[in-house]
Every structure is written in structure tokens, then in C-alpha cells.
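Project outcomes to date are best conveyed with an example. Our students and postdoctoral researchers have been running inverse folding experiments weekly, and each run begins with a structure described purely in C-alpha cells. The record below, which covers 278 residues, was selected by the lab manager from last quarter's runs and is presented without edits.
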């Protein structure tokens, strides 16, 4: 039997945010079974926690129902939250496939409140199949260049004219899946308030309730194109259209195309415990 917990991430309200399964003692689970277990859990991500190989508190392997990811945001934040809550820590370092990621927590009345992770700095380039993405979304153009960002996962960003247009999207998921594991981030907003929807059908996630690994590059994208100032923290609303409202915070520090640090923050809440029997 393998114990697991389920947390809702990027929310402090149970049954909202992005659900996450964490297997906190996964060293006894055969490696060839991890993908099948993640498919059985059928959440956007499942995390298997292993003993550290370096100076981190733990090593993690992260799976969607279809693929393993080197890094993902809500699994990192949620797993760090569970370890911090269990062990009474204010800082947790997780060893991911994209390197060590530190998460620092604030407390309110002695309890964990929000956590802030320092993410891998992404690379970016123009996306050569941008016209196909726009056609699959049913939109004619993007207000900013459609660019591909990589910080482990891969995301392209499409800027729309209004939050209402983002909410009304009904994309051709089969056409988006033809782009493999590339996630598509559609957004609108201004100043520090933004709305996003994220579609990743090629990774087994039709629509994601909260995408921490996309939030960091999103702040980079906005800063690079002058929509926000470097170092300015944005609030991202995501997930309402699928009944899982989520709130993420992100900022990119640097100047121009030089990015010195990327930070993403949010809350989490434990909602369930169980045992996997198979």
C-alpha cells in the first residue's frame, strides 16, 4: 500500500484551485508503475517524492496522466506545502528535473499561508506554428507576438482583446493536441490583474485550473513586451470556466530581455488522504 495526499493548490478554499496528488514515500514504488498510477489518479499532475540526491529536502518526479514533466508549478508548490506543514518548515527545496527549486512560506496565526517559489528562468523564441494555434483557438490574431517559452514544460502565449473573449474560447482540442506537449496560454487584462486559460491536451490536460509553470514565463512575457514593469507582481485568475477558480501571483525581475529571477506564489490546502492498494 502506498499512502498519498490530495491538496488543492493556488487556492485556500477546499475544492477549488488545482488538485494535486502527492505520494510522500514513493521510494518503494517501482519506477515503471509511476505513469500508470498518475493515469489512474487522473489529475493534471501527480507527484512522487523520493529521497534527495543533493542538498534538497526531497527529489520529485512529476507526471500528468500522459507524460512525465521535468518541472511544473502547482506540483512544486503543493508538494513543498505538504512537506513544510508536516515537518514544521518555512523553506523547502525540491530537486526537480529542471534543477533545485526553493519555496519559502509565510505563516498567519502560526499556520502556513502562501508559498513563493523561485522558478527556473525560461528561454523563449518565436513559435513557428503560430497560425495553426490561432486557427485552433478560433481567433484571428494575438495582440503580442506568439512566442514559445521553456522552463521545463513548454508554453505559447496568445494575447486577446478582453477577458470576455478569453472566457468565451471553445478551442479545437484535437488541433491543439497536434502540437504535442505544448501548452497554450490565452490571456487578457491590464496592469497587475490578468485572466488566463491554459489548454494542454497533448499532455493529457484539456484545460488546466491553475498552471504555476506557465505563470512565471507569463510575467516574463508581459515584462519583455512592456505590459508590466520588471519586478511588478501580477495577480492571475484562472480556472473559473471549469469550476476550479484559482489565484496565482508572479513577477519577473530583470531589465529588457535580461531576466534575473522568476517568482510565482500562491496558497494550498490539504483536502484528502488515502492509500493506493494496487
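After processing, the design step wrote out the following sequence:
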Amino acid at each position: 500500500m502506498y499512502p498519498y495526499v490530495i491538496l488543492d493548490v493556488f487556492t485556500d478554499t477546499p475544492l477549488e484551485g488545482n488538485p494535486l496528488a502527492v505520494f510522500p514515500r514513493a521510494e518503494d514504488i517501482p519506477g515503471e508503475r509511476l505513469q500508470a498510477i498518475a493515469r489512474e489518479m487522473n489529475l493534471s499532475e501527480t507527484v512522487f517524492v523520493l529521497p534527495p540526491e543533493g542538498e534538497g529536502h526531497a527529489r520529485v518526479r512529476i507526471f500528468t496522466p500522459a507524460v512525465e514533466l521535468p518541472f511544473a508549478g502547482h506540483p512544486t508548490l503543493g508538494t513543498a506545502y505538504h512537506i513544510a506543514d508536516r515537518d514544521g518548515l518555512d523553506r523547502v527545496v525540491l530537486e526537480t528535473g529542471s534543477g533545485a527549486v526553493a519555496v519559502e512560506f509565510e505563516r498567519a496565526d502560526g499556520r502556513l499561508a502562501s508559498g513563493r517559489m523561485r522558478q527556473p528562468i525560461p528561454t523563449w523564441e518565436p513559435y513557428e506554428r503560430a497560425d495553426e494555434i490561432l486557427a485552433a483557438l478560433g481567433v484571428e490574431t494575438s495582440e503580442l507576438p506568439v512566442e514559445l517559452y521553456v522552463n521545463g514544460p513548454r508554453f505559447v502565449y496568445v494575447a486577446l482583446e478582453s477577458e470576455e473573449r478569453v472566457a468565451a474560447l471553445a478551442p479545437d482540442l484535437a488541433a491543439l493536441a497536434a502540437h504535442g506537449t505544448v501548452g497554450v496560454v490565452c490571456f487578457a487584462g491590464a496592469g497587475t490583474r490578468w485572466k488566463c486559460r491554459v489548454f494542454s491536451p497533448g499532455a493529457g490536460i484539456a484545460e488546466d485550473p491553475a498552471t504555476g509553470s506557465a505563470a512565471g514565463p507569463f510575467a516574463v512575457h508581459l515584462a519583455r513586451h512592456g505590459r508590466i514593469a520588471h519586478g511588478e507582481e501580477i495577480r492571475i485568475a484562472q480556472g473559473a470556466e471549469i469550476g476550479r477558480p484559482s489565484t496565482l501571483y508572479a513577477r519577473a525581475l530583470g531589465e529588457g530581455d535580461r531576466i534575473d529571477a522568476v517568482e510565482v506564489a500562491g496558497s494550498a490546502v490539504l483536502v484528502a488522504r488515502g492509500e493506493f492498494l494496487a
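The radius of gyration is 18 Å. The mean pLDDT is 96. The training component of this project remains on track.
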